[in-house]
Amino acid sequence: MSRRKDHYEISRWLRFKRWVDGEVDPLSRGMEAQPAWKKEERDARVKQRLRERESGKQEAVKQEESGRQRKKARASSVPEILNTRGIRWFQRFYRIMSVLLCLSIIFVLLWTIAYLPPFGNAGNPANNEVPARYIERGLQETGAVNIVTGMILDYRAFDTFGESCVLFIASCCVLVLLRLDKESGQDAKGGNAKAARARKESEENDRLFEPKNDVILQKCACVLVPLIFVFGIYIILNGHLSPGGGFSGGAVLGSGLILYLNAFGFKKTEQFFTEKVYRRVTLCALTFYCLAKSYSFFTGANHLESGIPLGTPGAILSSGLILPLNICVGLVVACTMYAFYTLFRKGGM
Amino acid sequence: MFWETAGHLSANMEATAAVILFGVGFTMLLLHRNLIKKIMGMNIMDTAVYLFLAAKGYIHGRMVPIVADGIQEVTAYINPVPSGLVLTGIVVSVSTTALMLALTKRLYEQYGSLDLDEILILAKEEEEKAV
Amino acid sequence: MSLVQNFPFFSIIIAMFSGIISSVLSGRKARNLSLFMITVTTALSFFVLCYCQETGESYTYMMGHFPAPWGNEIRAGVLEGLTATLFGLVMFLAVLGGIDHTAADVEPGKLNLFYIMIDLMLSSLLALVYTNDLFTAYVFVEINTIAGCGLIMIRQKKKSMSAAIRYMIMSQLGSGLFLIGLSVLYDVTGHLLMSPAKESVSRILAQGSYEIPMLVILAVISVGLAIKSGLYPFHYWIPDTYGYATPTASAVLSGLVSKGYIFLLIKIFYRVLGNEHVIGSRLINILYWFGIAGMMMGSIHAIAEKDTRRMIAYSSVAQIGYIYMGIGLGTDQGMIAAVFHIFTHSVTKALLFISAVGLYEVSGNKTDYHSLRGSAYRNPLAAAGFTVGSLSMVGFPMLSGFISKLLFAASALDGTDWKMLPTLIALAVSTTLNAIYFLRQVITLYSGPRSGPKKAAEVSSAGNKSSWMLRTSILCLIAFNVFLGVSSQPIVQAIADGLAMFD
């Protein structure tokens, strides 16, 4: 279901020219990035690939034990399968069909656009009574100066609740895939040793990448990280007064945490942010969000007064539930961004 | 007829660009072999839809929908609804991208390849060996 | 507003809340909480069903302080209550039946994450059933997709991972198409809530403006949701996905996830685009032909399969073809038959997957066709379950599959002009094909030597007796299937009432 990968320059003249010049493209067989300090290994690998390409067979030569030796034992038949004549004709046909498919989708949708209402026109069907009420009475009904924040956290709050759940469940799925657990007590499959080995391996790999005590990074981080945190908190708190809100502010906070981690390493970051902190913060924030919004939905549907004061518009402590919800969302997003980063890098916090 | 359509399309430039990017992203997601390129295609496709949605909110000559100086006329602000939809959509897109990248990382660790066809062939071979 | 009217909202929130809390619980507590929550939500949905049948009309429930079209709302009626009750029941039995296998397949530290997926999957299914807003539907479709992916890959075997990535790729294609259809619909009508959007759409159709965009919207939304639910040309991800997941996950994915998307599609047809317009445009014929193609090709692939799990998965493709054929017939009767088949298929597929697991246990955990020879004598209850499920799929009288085939045939004879002949022929041919592979498997179960393959006796010493949970689950699913088959009339009547008040 896919087409053959194109080289960047496929013309014969350029290929001939490169061959004459003796140039070599180390990325031609894959997208694996190699760390710079393993240069000799990389060069050796590239030479070997050239040799293999000439001989037309692919042998797997990898340095690490787990997973790579399996491929060596496989003596993979993949290139043979992919090089049979039928498959190559099929791939050529596929390339043409794929271009046709792309063009037909674009054509159908462009044909639709030709009949849609024009851009920027005030008389569009989308500018009906719905945004009119949001603009005219949004400030009085929600207390938020930023009409968009008022809309997503008050009028259409159920969508935002669903969205926070999407973030939560995606982080759960990434935890399932990437978190390396400590060895558990009774592991029936005997994966105990395997888990311990995987964890140790990922720690060692990570220590290779971690820039230990890089002076420039640390000095810059000393200046930047507090500024980033303050800016992130400012965006979250001002979500209902100016452009901003929980999602953008949370992303900024998350990036501040990632910068701190990169500059100072896991040991220092674990002094204040561990997995326990992550779990407790997300649990409290999401629970508060759920309960507050349920209260709001329940009172609204049953036509009861919600009893939450809206405050004076323009002050920070205003607009009812919007400020606490923004803070919850900001915390969840910041923790999730940081969790994604550490899970991808080391398999845990 | 053709020139009318072309004129209309160039007046709606944002929607046109969004739709072209959508087609490109859709084809990348469907037909590329490399998993990372598929994920890139998915992101291009989603971003194109957000461009389309955001463009639908704009009205000529009006301001951003943040109440300034107490003006609350409908004629002073653009439509705030599509902006809210785009906010939700971006978070959903980030979540699915993170999930697919985590899957790609695990597949790479297990099979040593980022090429979906190769992975499927290797998986089939293993299954046949196991049976 | 009576208390019962709050129940749809309560069920969605309880499901989500238990998912959030399970993130700090241990595996066993998360499992118990999950089972408890599913029971409670099923009971709540049943009360909603009774209430709506008494009052005889559906009602809307504001989510917030502002009515439609400014705020969000959900809507509950007979059909929604019935579907929610059924989904809850099937999910409960699926989770109950697969508890031991889940505990064995999933790493102990990550067991609570599995139950979080189950909780959030149930909440998204309930939200898709009750929602009255298009963008909320999109967000919950995404939750459904991600939860489904989590259920597939929780096993962390290699085959599950490659199945999961194929599933995600196809699902994201469908979501992208659905979202752009939604955006164009918003642009043309200006509403995101379904009822105001329908007024807008009928006004547009009466005026005859925006003809091409309406056609493209219908096409794009149908194709997007068809890709996600596994209609025939887009079914490549189904066999791997359903075949290599843990039993609970297979039952939930095949029985419930696709049905959620099909239910959303039916809801959009009725409540946004208007059924007359959908039938009037010829696009519904395309769904009809793909449905028929799916019925045939699914069965043909199933006949060629040697692995039992993949065979059951391919039969899912065929059954989804039936449902789309029913929708494609374009009559009220056809829609009733399609909805009844949704219910039948959920129950029967869960029964097939769970009882098949009981059979694998006593055959040395091998799933191919030959290893299961004679396993009926080693595990009689699981074999009985498998037999009942197979006979139901084929269409044996007294079981639910018979009633759905009867309804399909009756709707084909009634009020469709040229679609009658292809439908009847397709029904006959696919019944024969279903019989070939299902009955072949059933006969294999009951024939052959009474002891299993030599390794089985040593390997499955602990699993020789399936746990009481598996057995209870199989018994309940058999009872449910027979109930649907024998006393189907009230249910069909309820579906007809529900569809009448659906728009």
What does this structure look like?
The complex is a heterotrimer of chains A (349), B (131) and C (503). Chain A has 349 residues and is mostly helical. Chain A folds into 2 domains: 12-83, no CATH class; 147-300 and 310-346, no CATH class. Chain A is built from 13 helices and no strands. In chain A, helix 8 (157-178) runs parallel beside helix 13 (322-346) and helix 10 (215-237) runs antiparallel to helix 11. The model of chain A is unreliable at 57-64 and 184-190 (pLDDT under 50). Chain B has a single domain (2-130), classed as Helix Hairpins (Orthogonal Bundle), CATH 1.10.287.3510. Chain B starts with a helix and ends with a helix. Chain C is mostly helical and 503 residues long. In chain C, strand 1 and strand 2 (72-76) form a beta hairpin. Chains A and B meet through helix 3, helix 4, helix 5, helix 6 and helix 7 of A and helix 1, helix 2, helix 4 and helix 5 of B.
List the helices and strands and how they pair.
The complex is a heterotrimer of chains A (349), B (131) and C (503).
Chain A: H1 12-21, H2 39-55, H3 68-74, H4 78-83, H5 85-113, H6 129-142, H7 147-155, H8 157-178, H9 192-209, H10 215-237, H11 246-269, H12 275-301, H13 322-346
Chain B: H1 2-11, H2 13-31, H3 35-55, H4 81-111, H5 116-130
Chain C: H1 7-21, H2 27-55, E1 59-63, E2 72-76, H3 78-97, H4 99-105, H5 111-130, H6 134-153, H7 158-189, H8 194-207, H9 211-229, H10 238-243, H11 247-273, H12 275-280, H13 283-304, H14 308-329, H15 332-361, H16 380-394, H17 400-413, H18 420-446, H19 454-459, H20 468-486, H21 489-500
Antiparallel strand pairs in C: 1-2
Helix pairs in contact in C: 1-2, 1-5, 2-3, 2-5, 3-5, 3-11, 3-15, 3-20, 3-21, 5-6, 5-11, 6-7, 6-11, 7-9, 8-11, 9-11, 11-15, 13-14, 13-18, 14-15, 14-18, 15-16, 15-17, 15-20, 15-21, 16-18, 16-20, 17-18, 17-20
Short summary:
The complex is a heterotrimer of chains A (349), B (131) and C (503). With 131 residues, chain B is mainly α. Chain B has helices at 2-11, 13-31, 35-55, 81-111, 116-130.
What key phrases describe this protein's structure?
heterotrimer; A: 349 residues; mainly alpha; 13 helices; 0% strand; B: 131 residues; Helix Hairpins; elongated
Q: How widely separated are the two ends of chain B?
A: 63 Å
Helicity of chain C, in percent? over 70%
* Assembly status: heterotrimer
Parts with pLDDT < 50 across at least 5 consecutive residues of chain B: none
Strand content of chain B: under 5%
Overall pLDDT level of chain C: 89
Distance between the termini of chain C: 22 Å
Hey, which two chains have the biggest interface? A-B, 78 and 71 residues
Number of strands of chain B: 0
Shape of chain B: elongated
Low-confidence stretches of chain C: 455-463
Report the sheet-strand fraction of chain C.
Answer: under 5%
CATH topology of chain B: Helix Hairpins
Radius of gyration of chain B: 22 Å
Helix and strand composition category of chain B? mainly alpha
Largest beta sheet of chain C: what is the strand line-up?
Answer: 1-2
Shape of chain C: globular
